[in-house]
Structures are given as C-alpha cells and as structure tokens.
Specification:
The complex is a heterodimer of chains A (342) and B (379). Chain A has 342 residues and is an alpha/beta fold. Helices cover 40% and strands 23% of the residues of chain A. In chain B, a hairpin with a 6-residue loop joins strand 9 and strand 10. Classes of the chains: A alpha/beta (342), B alpha/beta (379).
Chain lengths: 342, 379
C-alpha cells in the first residue's frame, strides 16, 4: 500500500507551478517506483490559498498551473482569500512544507516566518527560497533539530544538480575553496555580450524576453543572488560568513569595449563567485578568464562550480535557474524526506 | 478509453475571429465529440490575421502590436472570466517585453519565433476559456513542453523520437483525465527549450504528428470551407467537393498550392501511423484523406491554375493522371477545342499532369478541363 505524503506549496510562481506540473505528471510513476504517493493538500500565494485535505488530483494540479499570477484565490471551490497558515495547517495537516516564496534579503520575509511556523508545527521543510537560510541559517537549522524535523534546500545552489547534497556529504574532506559561476542570469547576459557583441542593455532585454531575467533583475546582475549562494555554502561548511561581508561587483558596468579588450587578449569576462575558506574571503567579481579555462566554456544559463579540498577537486556543471530543473530538485528533497523520515 | 475513441481536432485560424467564434467552436466540439462519447485533443491556430500582425510587430510596428493587444483583450473580456482576462493580460505583457527586445531588427530568428508563438499561445488560453464557459472541462497543454524540433527556426521540423517520448508520458494523464486537452499548433521548442515555429500551416503538422505518434485514427482539420474542392470555387462556380483523396494526391495538390496543408504534415503519417485526415467546416466534413485509395477511386481529383516564373500552367492532380492514356485524353480534349499547349509535364511516379498554356487560354482551359473531368457523366 502506498504511503501518502501530504505537502503544502507556499509560494506559487514559476517554480511552484513547475513543481505542481511535475507532481501531476510523475506522481503515479513515483508511487509505483517508491511506494510514496505525494498529495498536494494546500497551495498558497501572496493573495490567497487553495486547500483540499485529501489532496488535489492530477487534473486539479494542472488547472492550478493555469491560474494567473497571485490568482490562487480564484481556484474555486477550494479557494480562500488571504493567507493564513493556521487555517492551512489546521485544515490539511501537511507533513512537508515547501517554501517557494521569493527571496528578500533585508528581512527574509515572508520566508523566515513561514519556515519557523512550519517547524513549530512539526512539518519538515524543503525550501527553494534562499533568503531565510542566508539571514537565519543557524537559528532555523537548530530549531528544526530541536523539533525533530528536517530542512532541505538543494534547489538553492546549482538547483539543477545535487551540488548541495554532495558538499554536505564530503565529510572527511578539508574543503579549501569553492568557486565558480553560480548565477544563470548574469552568465547568460555575459555570454550574449560575447557571442553577439551587443551591449549590456540589449543583452538584458534579450534575457528578459526569453524569461531568463526578471523584470527587476537587480538581485542577479548586482551579484546579490550569487553572494547569497556563497553564504549558504559557507553555512553548509560550518564556516559561516554574512552577505554583507562579501564583496559584490555588478555586471551592469561592463561595456562592450571591456568585452572586446578581453577577447583580444584571448580571454572572456565571467562573473565568478569565490569563497576561500581558510582566508575566510568571499567575493563576486567580474574576471578575465583565459578561453582555455573550464569556466570559459560554461555559457548561457549553465552554472559550474569547482570544489577544492585537501584531497581532491570536484566540478559540478548544470543548469542554474530553470524552473523545471529547480522543481525536480525540490521534488528530490521531498522524496528523500519522505523515504527517510516519514 | 482506447485510440479509437480518441481523435485530434485542429481548428484553423480562419474560424477564430471573435469571442463568438471561439464559443461557437467550443459548442461544436461539445456537440460533435463529447456528446458522442469521443475524446479529442484540440490543436488551435492563432486567431484570424494575428500571425500576420505579429510578423509586422517583428518589423517594429507599434500599430500591429496594438492591434494584437486589442483583439485578444476584446475576446478575453467577452468571454467574461477574470481568470482568462488576467492570463491574457500577462501574456500580452510578456509579448511587449519580447517585442521590445527584437527592437525592429528582426535578425534573430529565435526571438522572432518566440514573438510569433504568442498568437497561438493566447488563442489556446481563449479556447480553454471558451470550453469552460460552456461547461466543458479543458486543460492547457504546452507545445513547447511536448513538440521537440530541430533548430531550424521559423520552419522547424519535429524531432519525432523526443516528441513521442513526451507524448507517451502525457498520454496516460490525457486519457484518464476528465478534461479536453488543448495545445497550440505551429509551435515547438528545441532540445534546450528555445521556442521554434513550424512554418506556415504548421498547425496541421502539429496535429498529424500528435495523431501519428499516439496511433490515433482520425485527425479533423476544421476550417471555413467544407472540404477540398475540385477547383477554386471563386473561379469556377461548379466546383465540387472531393470526397476521398490519398496522401500522395493531397501532398501533390499541396505542392501546387491547393488547400493550405503544410507538406510536412504528411511526413509523420507516412513514417509512423497513417491516421485518416478529415477536412471540412463545423457544418460539413466533406473530404477524407487516407493513406491509399482503392483502384476504382483513381482519377483526377483537383484541377487548378498556377504559375511558375510567370508561366501559367494547369495542374491536374490525382492517381492515374500521369498515365499515357489519361494524358492522351486530356490532349485530345484540348485539341478538339482548338487550343494549343506550350508544354506538358508529367512523371509516371507522380500523381499529376501539368499543362503549360499561354495566358490567353488559361481560364478557358481551366473551365474546359473542369467541365470535362468533373462535370461529365462518368463521375
């Protein structure tokens, strides 16, 4: 008999929708493979919630994806106006809380409160929102530990790869340095500038047209998203740094002339996130990389990170920000919690 | 449910003009298919005229962008669903971002195809809205998740293996689902997710690819005429419906410009599964196109006047039209009526006979041949 696992999706933007889609399409296959039947019992966005204690069926999950942005409150007959986690939890009793609200790096809200609430209600947490981890990693992890629940977040760094899981499992290693290209949007813009010889603004417009960059791209182009990822990495390695400590260089100042100068010297410009563990130095810098270097080959929306330890060097390459890839990482976290702890 | 109760229905853009026509098509889908226990996958084109406007948008026309905006918003408002209006507004906002990025240059085909794709995508949202407003459960499928193509932007070809894997994954959820799936025609995506378009008339190609890869027996191509006609009824009033044609015949007719079926649409039917094409309007499905026709149905099907490099010619299309006997018969008729031909072209392996004539004879010969071939006693 299938073990039913009840989950609630908090935040319903592109990753939330991709996740609902993937669950709709793969839920039966997953149940026959692993004996776990994922029931989405609640979905919330900034304006409202849709709740169904016995879980939405495949059709309903796909119909949820057709709602306009912030339109969960239109999903009759399951809709509620406004978000109230008490109502959501009391009515549906989710076992895993999926935090997919947008990252906000001043207060970390609503992610921090949502995650703390979930932990206090005894729900495991999977988050793709980085901000709560960036601002309150220690507090959240120790709170989860004391309540006996798990928090997983492999979608937050190199979301299309099992990078975070691997980093956590390199327990015997003394990790010296982690560096690479960790932001898909800025890497896409830089690649466009090199390949098409267009200036930053045109490349940004293309990125926005193709859905690679958001309407407000500041987090990506100013290095804040990349810095947030380094903060999470530093916490995973138990050598925490804060986001303020990280030097951040924006790619918005790069001119076409800079690109051409670099290319003339046999180099390309890349935005490289680097965390030197021993020196406790972290930065996001635009650097000239020789064309023969591995990082020079990582283009478009690809990400690539090199982990150097006292024993070895490991490289991860994979898609960074795509909603489908991120949704699969979130789903993998859900499944690993369901299989190990439920 | 099995493949016999499942069909594919493509709704052409000529039928989608305003909110009434979306609702009318939705009503017909309900009456013809759902109430008779059939399930159909709907493939929709962009609303009438929209693709041409989007091509102008790609060239930098703000007026064309305004037209697309107003047209689609008007239809959405008349369907009277908050959900549909907001969805269409979101898509139009994205369209504006894309139009902004193309900046009138129009050189980058990947952005160009992305821009064109909004015509079909919004039409799909509207069709789902129309179906739901008359009480039919419907579900959006996304062509860019399903139809994988090569990177030949603006005239892409479908990668059948990848597409078939995607369709199979979806099949069980389509079949068990209470809803009518609606997918946009004409659109695909490369392996790495960039939007492509399949060329003019590409929605037919979408429909035949889905049907043949899922072993579905029938594909309905719904348009504003009752079927394929023996000739252009605007030129010759006595034109009749062609009841049955073979793939070869209709492909040959398409190559000479008859009924706007994209010739690529036949490729999956030849390669994988030979679904029957049924062509017509919501009031009458007049023409069936099948893999092969029995010998007794051989003979001319369509006659039309075309021109190549300013050389007018009359094309007679049908199995057997390239045989010596048929050619002799046609030439005798022409001779008996005191006309001369400038050239004759036929190959025994192709179901057509082309007759080059001087422009003075063009229409006279067309009507003579139509009368002789289709209005005589033998048919």
């Amino acid at each position: 008999m299938d073990r039913k696992v009840k989950i609630a999706l908090i935040g319903f933007g592109s990753v939330g929708r991709a996740l609902a889609r993937v669950i709709a399409l793969k839920r039966k296959i997953i149940s026959s493979k692993y004996g776990i039947l994922i029931d989405v019992v609640g979905v919330a966005d900034s304006k409202g919630m849709a709740l169904k204690a016995e879980g939405f069926d495949e059709y309903e999950l796909l119909k949820l994806c057709e709602l306009p942005r912030s339109g969960v409150n239109l999903f009759k007959p399951y809709a509620y106006q406004g978000v109230d986690l008490d109502v959501l939890y009391d009515n549906t009793q989710p076992e895993i809380h999926i935090e997919l609200t947008p990252s906000e790096y001043i207060s970390g809200e609503p992610g921090v409160s949502n995650i703390v609430y979930a932990i206090d209600r005894g729900a495991h947490v999977v988050t793709a929102n980085k901000a709560p981890l960036v601002l309150r990693y220690r507090e959240i992890v120790s709170r989860a530990l004391s309540k006996g629940v798990k928090i997983k977040f492999r979608a937050t760094v190199l979301g299309g790869t099992p990078f975070i899981e691997t980093l956590m499992n390199m327990r015997s290693h003394d990790i010296e340095k982690v560096e690479g290209i960790v932001n898909a949007t800025s890497n896409f813009i830089l690649t466009e500038m090199h390949e098409r010889l267009i200036d930053f603004n045109d490349a940004l417009k293309r990125a926005q047209a193709l859905g690679v960059a958001e309407a407000n791209p500041a987090l990506d182009i100013d290095g804040i998203d990349a810095a947030a990822k380094l903060v999470i990495i530093s916490n995973v390695l138990e050598k925490p740094i804060t986001i303020e400590e990280i030097y951040k260089e924006s790619i918005s100042g790069i001119t076409l002339k800079d690109v051409i100068d670099a290319v003339r010297q046999g180099c390309v410009l890349k935005s490289i996130a680097s965390f030197d563990i021993r020196g406790r130095k972290a930065s996001i810098r635009v650097v000239r990389i020789p064309k023969s270097d591995l990082f020079a080959q990582i283009n478009g929306i690809m990400n690539g990170v090199r982990i150097r330890s006292d024993a070895t060097e490991v490289v991860f390459i994979g898609k960074g920000g795509g909603s489908m890839e991120t949704a699969h990482s979130v789903l993998d976290d859900i499944l690993s919690i369901a299989m190990e702890y439920l | 449910m099995n493949g016999k109760q499942l069909c594919v229905t493509k709704i052409g853009g000529s039928l989608l003009k305003d909110s009434k026509s979306y609702l009318y098509s939705a009503q017909k889908i309900k009456e013809i298919f759902i109430e008779n226990g059939y399930k159909t996958i709907i493939v929709v084109s962009a609303a009438k005229g929209i693709t041409d406007k989007l091509i102008e948008v790609a060239k930098g026309s703000q007026n064309a962008l305004n037209y697309v905006n107003e047209k689609y918003l008007e239809i959405a408002r008349e369907l009277n669903s908050v959900k549909i209006i907001r969805r269409v507004e979101e898509e139009l906002k994205r369209l504006k971002t894309v139009a902004n990025a193309i900046g009138g240059g129009g050189v980058d085909l990947s952005i160009y195809d992305l821009l064109l794709s909004f015509g079909e995508r919004i039409s799909k949202i509207l069709m789902v809205g129309a179906l739901e407003s008359i009480g039919v459960n419907a579900l959006e499928l996304h062509a860019n998740d399903l139809i994988v193509t090569n990177e030949n932007f603006s005239d892409a070809s479908i990668d059948y293996i990848s597409t078939s894997a995607n369709l199979e994954k979806l099949y069980s959820s389509i079949i068990d689902n209470p809803a009518i799936p609606v997918v946009e025609g004409f659109i695909g995506a490369t392996m790495d997710g960039r939007i492509t378009t399949l060329g003019r008339g590409g929605s037919d190609y979408t429909a035949t690819a889905i049907a043949s890869l899922l072993n579905i027996d029938r594909v309905y191509l719904v348009t504003d005429v009752d079927g394929i006609m023996t000739t252009d009824p605007d030129t010759i009033k006595t034109a009749k419906l062609v009841k049955v044609m073979s793939y070869r015949e209709s492909l040959e007719a398409a190559l000479h410009g008859a009924k706007r079926i994209n010739p690529k649409a036949f490729e999956p039917l030849e390669k994988f599964y030979s679904s029957k094409l049924v062509i017509g309007s919501w009031s009458r499905f007049g023409t069936e196109i099948v893999k092969e026709i029995p010998r007794e149905l051989w003979g001319p099907k369509v006659v039309m006047n075309r021109s190549t490099q300013n050389m007018p010619y009359i094309a007679i299309v049908g199995e057997g039209t390239s045989t010596t006997r048929f050619i002799r018969r046609v030439l005798e008729v022409i001779d008996e009526n005191g006309m001369d031909v400038l050239g004759v072209q036929s190959y025994i392996y192709r179901p057509s006979l082309l007759i080059y004539v001087s422009p003075t004879y063009e229409f006279k010969l067309l009507s003579l041949l139509h009368r002789e071939l289709f209005e005589g006693d033998e048919r």
